[in-house]
Amino acid sequence: MTNTNIRHLEKEFVVSYQIITSVMPLANKKYLQNAHEYFHKLNITFYLLIAGPLVGFCYAYLHYAAEGGLRLTLRFSWVHILLILGTGLCIAFALYWYRQALQQLDTAWSFQQKLQFFYQKSRGLHTLLMLSNALAALGLYLTGEQLFAGVYAIALVAFSLYRPTPRRITRDLRLTKAEEGRLVRADSYADESTE
User: Fold this and answer.
1) 65-100 per-position pLDDT tens digit
2) What's the start-to-end Cα distance of the chain, in Å?
3) What is the pTM of this model?
4) Where are the domains of the chain?
5) Where are the alpha helices (DSSP H) in 67-145?
6) Do residues 165 and 42 make contact, with C-beta atoms less than 8 angstroms apart?
């Protein structure tokens, strides 16, 4: 590749980045319009992050099922220890990080600021939990052992406990009764008169 081609690619990248960043704030605010849009965005993100490792897990499970089923773990290797420890540490770090992030919450923030804060922090939590699921699925793929099916199930339960529900949002954001009612109503979130 010549220097001219590299400069041309750099210019295209800069222009693309500027276009994306100028449009992104407009696109990101769409989920703050009403309860339907907000919960749709939260749930789509949640389910997409579950789906990635789940596809890998299903592939590995079906692959080993076709070969006669999952094997028993007869002895532990470094792979076992690293993947199980990595899965556990990802879960622990995700929960620790999320609890620390919630400490930054200011109850004086506007309703929309609180919702945007929750969306960003829950997306980070779910990404870390997705990593724990991916490590467990990788363990099943590499070893074909029942142990990692159990580790995956535990990681999936940890992931599911933090599903973005109205109750979780209300509790984590410490919403007032008026805000709690507003969270699930079909009214626009932009109308600040109900606070």
Assistant:
1) 888 877 777 787 888 899 999 999 999 999 999 999
2) 59
3) 0.76
4) 1-28, 33-194
5) 78-102, 111-143
6) no
